[in-house]
Amino acid sequence: MKLGEAIPKYQAYRNQLQDKKKDIYKQLKNARDKAERTGNDEWTQKAAQLQLSYDKASEDFDKYENALNGLREQWCAASDAENAKALADPETGLGATIAKIMTTVARMCAGDKVPYSDEKKVMEYDDKMYGKAKQAQMIMAALKEKRKEYDSLWDKEGGEYDPEGVADNTQAQGELPKIEEDTGPDSGTDSDAGQDAGLGDAAT
C-alpha cells in the first residue's frame, strides 16, 4: 500500500478508536460513580467489566497510533530525500536558482527586458530586492536607445521535483496492523452502561 493511501486510512481508523475509547471511559466513569454512590455490587461488577474494555481500547489505540506515526515518519523521510535531490540538482538546485535570480536582477538593473515569470522568481525570493531592481530597470530603460530582451532563464530547467507526490507514492514499509471493520464509538461497548446490566434508576 502506498503511503498516500495508507496514512488517511490509518488516520481515520485511529480517530474511530479514539472515539471508542472516549465513549467507554464515559460509561466507565458513570458506572464507577453509581457504584460508589449506591454500593450496588452489580454496578461494581459493571465498572470492572468496563475497565477491561477500556484497557483493551487503550491498547488498540496505542497500537494504531504507533502504526500511524511510523507511516508519517516514512512519508517525511521520502519527502526529505526528494527535497535533497532537488537542492543538489545542478539545473534546479538552490545554488543554480540563486545564480539565475542574480542574473535576472543584473539584467533588470541594466534596463533590459526579462520575462515576467523571471521577475516573479526574483519577487518570490526577495521582494525588496525585486522592488529596487524594478526601479533601476525603469530608470535605465529611459536612458537606453535599445533594450535587450532575454528569454527565460528557467525555460530549460531539469525535471520537476515533487517531494509530496513522491512521498505519497512511496510504498509503506513494514507490517501494518489490520484495520478491523465496523469499529466505532459503540462497537463492542454498551450504549448505556446501566441498560445492558439490567440496571436503571431504581438501583440508584
From TrEMBL:
Disordered: region residues: 154-204
Domain of life, source organism: Bacteria
Coiled coil: 14-74
Compositionally skewed regions (Low complexity) per UniProt: 190-204
Keywords: Coiled coil
Protein name: Uncharacterized protein
Annotated source species: [Bacteroides] pectinophilus ATCC 43243
Source species taxonomy: Bacteria, Bacillati, Bacillota, Clostridia, Eubacteriales
